[in-house]
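Readers of this paper often ask what the protein records in our data store actually look like. Such a record has a labelled line for the sequence and another for the backbone structure tokens. Nothing more is needed to write down the fold, since each code stands for a local backbone conformation. The remainder of this section carries one protein's record, kept here as part of the documentation.
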Amino acid sequence: MSEAVSRLVSRGGTRWLVPLAWAVLLLAACVGMPWLEGLFRLVEPDSRSVVYARADFLTLLGRHLLVVAVAALAAVAIGVGAAVAVTRRAGRDFLPLVAQLASIGQTFPPVAVLALAVPVLGFGTLPIIVALLLYGLLPIVRNTLTGLEGVDSGVREAARGMGMTSGQLLRQVELPLAWPVILAGIRTSVTINIATAAIGATVGASNLGDPIISGIVNGNTAYVLQGALLIGLLALTVDSVFARLQPAAA
């Protein structure tokens, strides 16, 4: 066991100890919430129930992660793709339009997006995925544009001088050099959306927002604290994972 730990340390495995510690704390909070009943009783001494029990916290965590992951993948595909397209010669005229559309997506309140999406898409998970997608586009588009436009023109000329095609220049030179900046945008987008996804509970998307909304409706502060605690731990876990990835990508 000690040899395994030594090998882990020698290979730089300690880089992942912080995100691992947050992940363990998150899972422990999900599983051990009922054992904290005495603590939450101090907050809500008159409530009949002080630990949210309408759904298992691990199940809510899995649903929360799924919604954020689907929205993030869609935002990365659309945001990076659009930014790459408008930095090519043929699409450069659309650069201001794409930047403005991404800005509008984030300034539009997610609650308003939900209100508009529900009549079309119905209640459930899909409206909150649309809201998170729109809300998460701006950091990704903006950072991808910054990263690609920050590539030194001399490097591009040198790559072309080596006979690289436009596709090879993008894949082998521009995207690798811009990747740390792009990853920073993805990190910001995902971290924000982990907190924003909680409002999905208002339209029937079951996730870690359930105890928060239930607590607000029933006047139970203990429920609100449980949902907020788990969402906070999830955000810290994911953010620390991105923090460890960024130096490696730089």
DSSP finds eleven helices and no strands in the chain. Residues 201 and 213 are 7 Å apart (CA to CA). The chain has a mean pLDDT of 87. The radius of gyration is 22 Å.
